[in-house]
Specification:
It is a single chain. This protein has helices at residues 23-30, 34-42, 62-76, 81-93, 98-139; strands at residues 51-52, 58-59. A two-stranded antiparallel sheet has the order 1-2. 56% of the residues lie in helices and 3% in strands. The longest helix is centred in the last third of the chain and has 42 residues, at 98-139. It is built from 5 helices and 2 strands; from the N terminus they run H-H-E-E-H-H-H.
């Protein structure tokens, strides 16, 4: 499970906490594009300002990578950007709003579970249709399956 923890950098020897990673390397490690990393920063999805070199180039640390992973997983489950932003704002605000964070996550979890239930119902129909086709093909009478016919001259 991905958990953002300020002490997590020492647990990842490939990420020098002092040097950090370039935006390209951060993109490679998180599986998102450089554009996405910049977008996340621009729309307020980061919980801490991204570090910069003296030359102004972004420098990502393990904490940043862990947070990007959380954001991408929330997006993958359908959480809107505004929801992720709200969650990020709560996390960035620090202690004292844990119940609000829990509310955001539980609400999103309920939505995900509802989508999963709907997908499972849809999957039942697909499985039924597969069973029908397999049965008819095995019986040799698949040509009797319903197929709409258009009246001649109709397009």
């Amino acid at each position: 499970m991905v958990e953002v923890n300020p002490q997590s950098e020492s647990a990842h020897p490939h990420c020098d906490p002092q040097a950090g990673l370039s935006i390209g390397e951060a993109a490679r490690r998180t599986g998102v594009s450089v554009h996405t990393l910049r977008y996340y920063e621009r729309v307020g999805l980061v919980v801490t300002p991204v570090d910069r070199t003296h030359g102004g180039r972004r420098r990502y640390h393990q904490l940043d990578l862990d947070w990007v992973t959380i954001c991408t997983r929330l997006r993958a489950t359908g959480m809107p950007i505004r929801g992720i932003r709200r969650y990020a704002e709560l996390v960035a605000a620090g202690r004292g709003n844990e119940e609000d964070r829990l509310d955001v996550l539980e609400s999103h979890r309920d939505e995900v579970l509802a989508r999963i239930a709907a997908l499972q119902e849809n999957l039942k129909l697909i499985d039924h249709k597969i069973d029908v086709y397999r049965g008819r093909l095995a019986a040799g009478d698949a040509d009797t399956l319903w197929a709409p016919h258009r009246a001649s001259g109709a397009s």
